[in-house]
Amino acid sequence: MEKTMRKIALALSLISLLALSACGGKEDPIDAALKNAANGGGGGAAASGPARTATIKGKITFEGTPPTPKTITTTSDPGCKGNKFPDEAIVVSDGGLENVILYASGGDVTKQKYPVPTEVVTLSQEGCHYIPHALTIQTGQKLEVVNNDETAHNIHAWATVNAAFNLSQASKGVKDTRVFDKEEVLLPIRCDVHNWMNSFIGVFSHALHTTSKKGGAYELKVPPGTYTITAEHEKLGKQDMMVTVADNGSADLNFTFKAQ
User: Are residues 195 and 220 in the same domain?
Assistant: First the structure.
């Protein structure tokens, strides 16, 4: 009797699975990408990555007289609440260049596999202004674009390697999530409603990337090894330098960009 009941239960389970398969259709590609990111970017849950026990740090110096940034006014849209802010194409503070995207490449990068981070990277629209101006993200990692303004925005990703997207966010509080599946530097984000709004993204297949902050300072945690470090800026181009850093060690690596 018990064996018969087990056979009946198994048969009912198979019927349920067949019914679900028959009802299913093609999955939306964006939903598929998001599920893939949640599972570690392909092939199950994310494993632990290589230990980043070494540090590369330094300063991005700006040499010469910094250009005077023009003031961007947003009075053309009342929803921007009259916000004013300086153009962020070249931001210099304490002699250092901000918003430079830095990333590692070379043999020691390709030797390791890095799991997709679970941390969500946020690009916020505040006062009709993108915050941050430059950011980095890993392939498969979630990017959340948020409208924090009392007006409509249109987020346009001018990707050439990844799939481009164009999102309308009609009101405050709207959020959209996207992922990138290929490396791409620099990937511009613009608003088709407010032509002064722009941001830049660096997309990488590994975790060894960052941006320069106030005073041009940056810090990058890496596994011990030898790397090429690239510093890339939207207006001033890019530079490469080699560095070797030991386990639990630290290496200073400074870049200088000159005024054009």
Answer: yes
Q: Provide the domain limits for residue 9.
A: 2-38
CA distance 239 to 235: 12
> Is the pTM above the cut of 0.85?
no
Same domain, 223 and 115: yes
* DSSP secondary structure, the chain, as one string: -HHHHHHHHHHHHHHHHHHHHHH--PPPHHHHHHHHHHTTSSSSSPPP-----EEEEEEEEEESPPPPPPEEE-TTSGGGTT-EEE--SS-EETTEE-S-EEEEESHHHHTS--PPP-SPEEEEE-SS-EESSEEEEETT--EEEEE-SSS-EEEEE--SSSPPEEEEE-STT-EEEE---S-EEEEEEEESSSTT-EEEEEEESSS-EEE--GGGEEEEEE-SEEEEEEEEETTTEEEEEEEEE-TT-EEE--EEEE--
Asked if the structure places residue 49 within a domain, the reply is no
Q: Assess contact for 146 and 122: CB atoms under 8 A.
A: yes
Instruction: State pLDDT tens for residues 129-161.
Output: 999 999 999 999 999 999 999 999 999 999 999
Do the domain assignments include residue 253?
yes
228 and 183 both lie in a single domain? yes
State the CATH number of the domain containing residue 74.
2.60.40.420
* Residue 115: both structure tokens together: 């799991």
pLDDT digits (tens, 9 = 90+) for 113-136: 999 999 999 999 999 999 999 999
The reply to whether 157 and 242 lie within a common domain is: yes
For residue 34, what are its two tokens?
Answer: 């998001």
Tokens of 174: 């709207």
What tokens appear for 153 in the block? 């925005």
Domain identity same for 33 and 123: no
